Amino acid sequence: MKGRLRDHADMGFDPPSLPQDLVDYLDRPAVSVSQKKGVLPQNLAPEKTASREKRAWEQTSLEDLRTHVGDCTRCGLHKGRTNLVFGEGDPNARLVFIGEGPGYDEDREGRPFVGKSGKLLTKIIEDGMGLSRDQVYICNVVKCRPPNNRDPEDKEVRICLPFLIQQIRIIHPEVICVLGRIAAQALFGKGFRITADRGQWRVCEGIPTMTTFHPAYLLRYPNTKRETWEDIKQVMQKLGLEVKKDA
Ligand code: SF4
Are 163 and 67 in contact (CB under 8 A)? Predict the structure, then answer.
């Protein structure tokens, strides 16, 4: 039609006056072949039908989210795992601890922080904070053990992170305590430096978040105990817990 109007103008005829909505229609971007075939770009794709699988952020309870994660094969870490380690603790916890990923013992048991580092974390929670493990929630950024305890790769973190974010949204704790550089970088970006940036409040999903050293780092460098305790004391103060003089 546009072409016919152009031909008329070339032949010296005045163009007919067209209603504005028809002008707009003619000026719309051309529809590509891929769109005609139904291969729409992501941002133009119509909402899928009601029968589609629900996404992580649509799960409203930890049980539903765990069911949604299922026997996950979304990233390569599933190949080497014995058990997927989803997380454990009080679904209404005021405090959530987040580590980077399961290690050997966690992979065997299917529970977070149960090895040597886990025992130290339990000591911090029980002896230092005066809480029990049952009163907090403990989980990791990636839910499957990276081979030989290597750091999870960026792609693995990216794929698994929505599960953690949804865990945080469902529990909606008053405070989050992030353990170590890898977990902090997953939440706050690669620029996070554990030695310089730990001990300062940040916000994750609207929740005050403190990062401290990973218990494994604490075991390797016991002289970081003082700094860790300072960070934990800040967490306790934020929660209104009584802070003992020493732990
Ligand atoms: S690490 Fe996360 S995304 Fe990867 S397989 Fe395990 S649960 Fe799935």
Answer: no
Residue closest to 71 by CA, chosen among 143, 137, 138, 140: 143
Report whether residue 74 contacts ligand 1, using a CB cutoff of 6 Å: yes
With bands split at pLDDT 50, 70 and 90, how would you rate the model's confidence at 52? low
Closest atom of ligand 1 to 69 CA is: 7
CB 133 within 8 A of CB 113: no
Amino acid 173 reads P
CA–centroid distance, 227 to ligand 1, in Å, is 32
| Closest approach atom of ligand 1 to CA 72 | 8
Q: Are 110 and 182 in contact (CB under 8 A)?
A: no
Q: How far apart are CA 70 and CA 53, in angstroms?
A: 13
Asked if residue 56 has its Cβ within 6 Å of ligand 1, the reply is: no
pLDDT band per the 50, 70, 90 thresholds, residue 75: very high
Report the share of the chain in percent with pLDDT over 70. Answer: 77
* Residue whose token pair is 């339990």: 122
Q: Is residue 35's pLDDT more than 50?
A: no
CATH topology of domain 81-239: Uracil-DNA Glycosylase, subunit E (3.40.470)
Instruction: Encode burial over 70-92: b for 16+ CB neighbours within 10 A, e otherwise.
Output: eebeebebeeebeebbbbbbbee
The answer to whether 121 and 216 are in contact (CB under 8 A) is: no
Query: 235 alpha carbon to ligand 1 midpoint, in Å?
Result: 29
Among candidates 228, 234, 233, 230, which has minimal Cα distance to 215?
Answer: 228
